[in-house]
């Protein structure tokens, strides 16, 4: 599988979750695990470009696919991706634990709807739980990300 | 001091790494650590007849399986964090249960293996033979039951406390009107997105234990580990790295893992880690909110409260590790922003066979607010008066501060409101709320509230200007998303006249600052924020003193601006702060970075020893702030809701918050706290419920069934601030962490009651609960 564009050898343990593989075998700890039953969305990664829950698939199922984690979104030390920048500007994160999952979900949302309506925004982030922000700032961040992506 | 940064919407310095996936949470640390799993009781109350770990120990990859008897501290009752004279029957659990378990989730064995998958397999092989015992789950039943949670606690009562101001009985008897209410609050859960986690390493050569813990109080954990392990405190480091939300329950002494992981690391000579899963988080991390109140109020024909009696039961759960702080806070906060001339409050803290309770955001305050606001709504209904007018007539007025409530507060002092303007909050909330939306089944709710914040005993800070001119600051209390690194940088930057980006804050790391209490009770900004100001102020004075010699000026004529110490009125006469930092450390050996300016053959401006008597090297200082008492924030929430009469779906049409936390350090951060708090309040009022069955099983211990709100359930919140500075601290600030959550239950209860025309006397609600209330025979 390719992770953030880099080819990696196949995982050896057949029952290893993709989330555990990314975090503990590849050291990509930006993918967080909040529930391990596919509800909270903290472990969201892009799988061939679309958001999925990495706690709900086995690492071996990712063989032959492209996975993007939060670490792959912006060049290290380079500018933030527009979605990351928008979360920063709009105070769209507090503790930061759910944030990588939200950011990647919003990347997926904007790929599908570059100018989302408020309903599409709520729908697009309604698979991710946040306990800190109350979502208001995240909604603002999505709108801002759409603007920044346009520029 | 300038106030360039204080009060500004400074964007957060902590965001960049969190957005790039470069955060540093406890489970992110591995370093070859062994992994571990706790075996937990599946019974709410049972005697342990035997435990067989032989199959678990035999599984390849298992390194150790520990039972209570294997632990040197196994027969020690864990500490009561906050002892109180009224807690006559306080009971705490042991690290691992060996004779009786008293709630589902109580730990009985600890498995350490080469990886988590093996540890989970081995945990399944631990055979525990339980003999089930009778279970008590409902607090009212516990108070009346024959079944005891602890054999030696009669009536299941851990504590009882009675306080009275005035003569409630006489005033009730004389009151023209009286009303009785029974109000019920069920348990709730904080449910931070990151569960708990612990990582530990023992270094024999350094004789040093290093523990990473997702705790809200690393300094206390350090002290407790040193005591239990017989180590000097100076050999224990505890670090709370990035913590993925706390909200209260991440402060304990101890959760079993907080002892077992360091113990195993010391015993096995390898790093060990433990990371909670969500299901065990639901049963093994402290809950909150279970209370039942019996209220009697006496009032006059204008709706003025003359006398209030509240007798309530608080659900302690199976143990009382946190003491009785929760019911003490509730008892203190029932009167809220209102004059209650005669007030009697009694509580009984009772044991049940459920997870122990300790503070969760709001910490007893939402219950208190619910009780008082439901009472005022009942008075208005009884007299046919406007609900707003009843509140207006009872509010404490701005000229009545300081206002002594006459009852005990959580710090051992009495409740004394320091400042506020409650009528202004009510007026502004109504103005923002605007006209009632058209349509049927619409209801309005509103609730002013107070929030005791900034509780002591103290916090401290260390601030140092480096020779680069950059500033580092540290405090003992950790951060769980409250933007500490930003707001404290703002305070320090103003004191030192530097850019906020040049201040780097570390918090919650005992290696950087070893003193302090913890992050809880809306206290960080007040207590640690003022400590930062004290320490940075001391550094500024020291900088002026050193610079004065070199500028041949009086320190009183100097100011710190734009990274320089300069003469007031002659800004060209100055010296960079970085150079002052160099001069603060007289040296023999220059090490670059301009430090040759402070070496021994460089002319010095004054005679005598390079370091004068009583001076210390380095441009640094440590300062502390210890409040005389809590400072009381306040606010008012108001909302319009619509309830679908067929599906009982709740639609929040408008929700407004006016908030007063004194001087605002960073309005953006405060608004984030409020928005998040309101969302938790809405969750706790209408969606989240811990569904225990009669056997003490938590039937919805997953995010699939415990309905935490998504974005689709949370409306936009409109926020405004008024600023009534606190006279109690130099910065004039009050806490803001719990403001969002306190009145939400009261607001939604009132609004739903009006929308549906049925009395609302309990929390949480749900579509099903509303259906039952509407359809049940009256």
Describe the 3D structure.
The complex is a heterodimer of chains A (about 150) and B (about 775). With about 150 residues, chain A is of the alpha+beta class. Chain A has 2 domains: about 1-70, Roll (Ubiquitin-like (UB roll)); about 80-150, DNA polymerase, domain 1 (Orthogonal Bundle), CATH 1.10.150.120. Helix content of chain A is about 35%, strand content about 10%. Chain A has helices at about 20-25, 80-90, 100-110, 120-125, 135-150, and strands at about 1-5, 5, 45, 50-55, 65-70. Chain A has a 5-stranded mixed beta sheet, with helices on one face. In chain A, strand 3 (about 45) and strand 4 form a beta hairpin. In chain A, helix 2 packs across helix 5 (about 135-150). Chain A is globular, with a radius of gyration of 15 Å. The model of chain A has no long low-confidence stretch (mean pLDDT about 95). With about 775 residues, chain B is of the alpha+beta class. Chain B folds into 3 domains: about 30-135 and about 195-245 and about 250-285, Aldehyde Oxidoreductase, domain 3, CATH 3.90.1170.50; about 290-455 and about 630-775, Aldehyde Oxidoreductase, domain 4 (2-Layer Sandwich), CATH 3.30.365.10; about 455-625, Aldehyde oxidase/xanthine dehydrogenase, molybdopterin binding domain (Aldehyde Oxidoreductase, domain 4, 2-Layer Sandwich). In chain B, strands 3-5-1-12-9-10-11 form a 7-stranded mixed beta sheet, sandwiched between helices. In chain B, strand 16 and strand 17 form a beta hairpin. In chain B, helix 13 (about 485-495) runs parallel beside helix 14. The longest helix of chain B has 28 residues, at about 525-550. The chains are: A alpha+beta (about 150), B alpha+beta (about 775).
């Amino acid at each position: 599988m390719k992770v953030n564009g880099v080819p990696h050898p196949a995982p050896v343990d057949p029952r290893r979750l993709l989330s555990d593989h990314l975090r503990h075998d590849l050291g990509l700890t930006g993918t967080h695990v909040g529930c391990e039953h596919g509800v909270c969305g903290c472990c969201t990664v892009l799988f061939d470009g679309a958001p999925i829950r990495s706690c709900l698939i086995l690492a071996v199922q990712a063989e032959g696919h492209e996975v993007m984690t939060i670490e792959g979104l912006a060049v290290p030390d380079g500018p933030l991706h527009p979605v990351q920048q928008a979360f920063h500007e709009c105070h769209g994160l507090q503790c930061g634990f759910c944030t990588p999952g939200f950011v990647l979900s919003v990347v997926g949302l904007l790929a599908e709807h570059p100018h989302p309506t408020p309903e599409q925004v709520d729908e697009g982030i309604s698979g991710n739980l946040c306990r800190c922000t109350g979502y208001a700032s995240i909604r603002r961040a999505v709108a801002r990300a759409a603007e920044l992506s346009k520029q | 001091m300038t106030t360039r940064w204080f009060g500004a919407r400074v964007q957060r310095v902590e965001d960049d790494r969190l957005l790039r996936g470069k955060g540093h949470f406890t489970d992110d640390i591995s370093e070859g650590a062994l992994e571990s799993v706790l075996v937990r009781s599946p019974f709410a109350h049972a005697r342990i007849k035997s435990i067989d770990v032989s199959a678990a120990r035999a599984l390849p990859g298992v390194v150790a399986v520990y039972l209570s008897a294997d632990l040197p501290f196994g027969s020690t009752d864990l500490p009561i964090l906050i002892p109180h004279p009224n807690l006559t029957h306080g009971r705490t659990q042991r690290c691992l249960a060996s004779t009786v378990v008293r709630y589902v989730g109580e730990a009985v064995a600890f498995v350490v293996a080469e990886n988590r998958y093996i540890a989970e397999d081995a945990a399944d092989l631990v055979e525990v033979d339980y003999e089930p015992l009778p279970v008590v789950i409902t607090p009212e039943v516990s108070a009346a039951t024959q079944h005891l949670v602890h054999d030696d606690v009669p009536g299941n009562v851990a504590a009882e406390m009675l306080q009275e101001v005035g003569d409630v009985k006489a005033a009730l008897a004389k009151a023209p009107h009286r009303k009785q209410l029974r109000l019920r609050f069920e348990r709730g859960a904080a449910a931070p997105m990151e569960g708990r986690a612990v990582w530990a390493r023992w270094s024999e050569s350094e004789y040093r234990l290093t523990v990473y813990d997702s705790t809200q109080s690393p300094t206390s954990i350090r002290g407790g580990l040193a005591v239990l392990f017989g180590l000097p405190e100076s050999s224990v480091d505890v670090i709370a790295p990035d913590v993925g939300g706390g909200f209260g329950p991440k402060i304990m002494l101890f959760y079993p893992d907080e002892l077992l992981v360091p113990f195993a690391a010391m015993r096995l000579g390898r790093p060990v880690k433990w990371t909670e899963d969500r299901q065990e988080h639901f049963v093994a991390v402290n809950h909150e909110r279970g209370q039942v109140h019996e209220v009697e109020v006496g009032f006059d024909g204008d709706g003025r409260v003359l006398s209030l009696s509240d007798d309530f039961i608080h659900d302690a759960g199976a143990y009382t590790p946190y003491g009785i702080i929760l019911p003490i806070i509730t008892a203190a906060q029932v009167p809220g922003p209102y004059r209650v001339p005669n007030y009697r409050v009694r509580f009984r803290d009772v044991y049940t066979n459920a997870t122990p309770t300790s503070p969760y955001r709001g910490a007893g305050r939402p219950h208190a607010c619910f009780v008082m606001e439901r009472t005022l709504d009942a008075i208005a209904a009884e007299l046919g008066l406007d609900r707003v007018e009843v509140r207006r007539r009872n509010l404490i007025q701005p000229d009545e501060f300081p206002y002594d409530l006459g009852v005990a507060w959580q710090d051992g002092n009495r409740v004394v409101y320091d400042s506020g303007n409650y009528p202004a909050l009510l007026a502004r909330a109504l103005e923002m709320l605007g006209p009632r939306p058209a349509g049927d089944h619409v209801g309005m709710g509103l609730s002013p509230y107070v929030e005791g914040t900034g509780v002591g005993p103290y916090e401290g800070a260390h601030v140092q200007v480096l020779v680069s001119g950059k500033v580092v600051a540290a405090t003992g209390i950790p951060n769980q998303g409250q933007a500490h690194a930003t707001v404290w940088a703002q305070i320090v930057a103003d004191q030192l006249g530097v850019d906020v980006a040049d201040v780097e804050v570390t918090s919650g790391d005992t290696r950087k600052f070893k003193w302090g209490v913890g992050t809880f009770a809306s206290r960080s900004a007040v207590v640690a924020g003022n400590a930062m100001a004290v320490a940075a102020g001391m550094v500024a004075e020291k900088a002026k003193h050193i610079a004065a010699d070199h500028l041949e000026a009086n320190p009183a004529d100097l100011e710190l601006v734009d990274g320089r110490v300069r003469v007031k009125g002659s800004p060209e006469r100055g010296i960079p702060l970085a150079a002052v930092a160099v001069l603060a450390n007289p040296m023999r050996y220059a090490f670059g970075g301009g430090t040759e300016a402070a070496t021994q053959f460089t002319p010095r401006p004054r005679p005598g020893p390079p370091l004068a008597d009583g001076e210390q090297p380095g441009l640094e200082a440590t300062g502390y702030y210890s409040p005389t008492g809590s400072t009381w924030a306040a606010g008012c929430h108001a909302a319009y809701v619509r309830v679908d009469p067929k599906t009982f779906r709740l639609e929040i049409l408008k929700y407004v918050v006016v908030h007063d936390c004194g001087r605002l350090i960073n309005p953006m951060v405060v608004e984030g706290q409020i928005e998040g708090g309101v969302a938790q309040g809405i969750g706790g009022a209408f969606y989240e419920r811990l569904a225990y069955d009669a056997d003490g099983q938590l039937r919805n211990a997953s995010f699939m069934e415990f309905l935490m709100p998504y974005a689709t359930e949370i409306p936009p919140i409109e926020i405004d601030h008024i600023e009534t500075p606190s006279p109690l601290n130099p910065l004039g600030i009050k806490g803001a962490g719990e403001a969002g959550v306190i009145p939400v239950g009261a607001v939604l209860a009132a609004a739903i009651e009006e929308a549906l025309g049925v009395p609302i006397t309990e929390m949480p609600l749900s579509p099903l609960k509303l259906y039952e209330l509407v359809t049940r025979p009256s």
